[in-house]
Structure to design on (517 residues):
């Protein structure tokens, strides 16, 4: 939806936009691919934009990216700093691996000059003299350089010098008029030091981008941005996670599954490598669907998920495992125990294991990693092990469900088979799930422990499969050196899922010692 200007906003900008609004202005890259995507191609040229956020949210870094993008294209760029010294700015750039040789830095009123006793005013109020002189110095430097991109850091100092909202608004309007006549694109920074949101400032500028930083109880802080307004531009609304890395801001546009589609390739089924299990599923799990492996800890969920990933590699397809709870060494040891050829699949580049730390990763960044695996690496099978770890990254259940719904829809429309692992609380008897995702799942495989004659055994059942036929019986299965072995239906048992079933059959059922039926 295009955000149309209100009457008040149109009145505030009419004097500046005037005849220029008759022509469609060119779009300028912000120097950040993620933000350009959110804005549908970048910013309109020759406009005034506000970049606001509390200290530490990344405003200066993003402003430098904006100027460096112009410098790479041969444009004249200017950074006007009222809050940071040139030395501080160059240090920030160096730590990002940047050179500011193509960017003009204007450190306004250096600290040494500000402390000079001869500059003290006694006849006129100091704020009036300093505000007027500051504005004059800005105008002179801009007129001398004639830049096409300007970053102004920050408005907080102008607000302090103006001392009243009326003078401050007039000063911003004066700056806007001046910059409009110079045909330059201006990014002004504000650290939100005022007690309330400056709605008046929002009505003056052409667009507003807000950066936020939130501290959580444990783990790294979370950063996100939102485009508050952008006149005449169809931008992607809502919050978008981002992180500050060496090289600038990495912005992860909010995933919209409806924008992504891929034509189906190959067989409709993605087999598990175990014929008995595929028969229980009516031929296997279909591509473009997702399956939830649900059960107690240690019941075999991760082993079952691993067989799907390795089976994909055996077919020459790519698979990726996102491990939230286990390290790579644990997964490799499990594969060796089950006799699965994990090392060969990894060495061939067909299977990738990526360990995820939910305390350090935002949901938006994780969605971006998944997209890269599917779109760039062409992964056909995606394993998320487990959703309990993902839940730790998204403490609010409402947003977890929304995020997971969008991610699963995206993976389905890209033709990938998604295997989800969710551990329930408890070991035997009634078990509780930390969150109910069964309604989002196309298939649900339920794994349970049960006890018989002093031995703990495992049971497997397909309790849901949206697409096609599936078996409704409960079967025993075992983890052995030959992989996963699925036994015959436990027809002579009653109450298997209770954990303590009763047996009415004539003889001991189950598997032989070698893992065969």
């Amino acid at each position: 939806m295009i955000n149309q200007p209100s009457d008040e906003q149109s009145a505030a900008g009419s004097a500046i936009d005037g005849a220029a609004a008759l022509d469609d202005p060119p779009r300028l890259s912000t120097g950040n691919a993620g933000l350009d995507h959110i804005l549908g191609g970048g910013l309109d040229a020759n406009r005034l934009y506000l970049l606001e956020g509390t200290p530490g949210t990344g405003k200066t870094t993003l402003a430098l990216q904006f100027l460096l993008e112009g410098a790479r294209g041969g444009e004249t760029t200017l950074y006007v700093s009222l809050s940071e010294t040139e030395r501080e700015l160059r240090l920030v750039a160096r730590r990002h691996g940047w050179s500011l040789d193509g960017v003009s830095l204007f450190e306004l009123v250096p600290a040494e000059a500000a402390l000079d006793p001869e500059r003290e005013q006694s006849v006129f109020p100091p704020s009036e003299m300093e505000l007027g002189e500051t504005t004059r110095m800005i105008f002179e430097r801009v007129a001398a350089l004639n830049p096409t991109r300007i970053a102004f850091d920050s408005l907080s100092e102008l607000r302090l010098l103006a001392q009243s909202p009326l003078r401050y608004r007039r000063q911003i309007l004066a700056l806007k008029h001046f910059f409009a006549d110079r045909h330059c694109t201006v990014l002004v920074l504000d650290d939100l030091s005022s007690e309330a949101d400056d709605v008046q400032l929002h009505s003056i500028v052409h667009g507003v981008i807000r950066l936020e930083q939130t501290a959580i109880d444990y783990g790294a802080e979370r950063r996100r941005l939102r485009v508050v307004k952008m006149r005449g531009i169809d931008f992607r609304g809502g919050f978008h996670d981002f992180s500050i890395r060496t090289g600038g801001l990495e912005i992860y546009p909010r995933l919209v599954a409806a924008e992504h589609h891929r034509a189906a390739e190959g067989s409709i089924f993605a087999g598990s490598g175990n014929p008995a299990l595929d028969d229980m599923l009516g031929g296997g799990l279909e591509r473009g669907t997702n399956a939830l492996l649900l059960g107690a800890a240690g019941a075999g969920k991760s082993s079952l998920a691993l067989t799907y990933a390795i089976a994909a590699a055996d077919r020459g397809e790519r698979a990726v495992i996102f491990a939230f709870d286990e390290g790579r060494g644990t997964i490799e040891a499990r594969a060796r125990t089950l006799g699965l050829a994990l090392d060969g699949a990894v060495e061939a580049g067909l299977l990738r294991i990526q360990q995820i730390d939910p305390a350090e990763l935002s949901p938006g960044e994780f969605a971006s990693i998944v997209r890269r695996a599917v779109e760039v690496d062409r992964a056909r099978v995606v394993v998320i092990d487990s959703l309990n770890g993902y839940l730790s990254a998204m403490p609010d259940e409402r947003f977890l469900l929304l995020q997971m719904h969008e991610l699963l829809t995206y993976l389905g429309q890209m033709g990938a088979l998604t295997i989800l692992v969710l551990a329930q609380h408890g070991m035997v008897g009634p078990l509780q799930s930390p969150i109910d995702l069964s309604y989002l799942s196309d298939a649900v495989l339920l794994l349970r422990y049960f006890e018989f004659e002093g031995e703990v055994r495992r049971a497997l059942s397909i309790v849901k499969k949206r697409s096609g036929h599936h078996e409704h019986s409960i079967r025993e299965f075992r983890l052995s050196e030959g992989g996963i072995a699925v036994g015959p239906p436990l027809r002579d048992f009653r109450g298997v899922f209770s954990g303590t079933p009763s047996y009415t059959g004539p003889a001991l059922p189950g598997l032989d010692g070698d893992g065969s039926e």
Summary: The longest strand covers residues 455-465. The radius of gyration is 30 Å. Confidence is low (pLDDT under 50) at residues 4-22, 110-115, 119-126, 513-517.
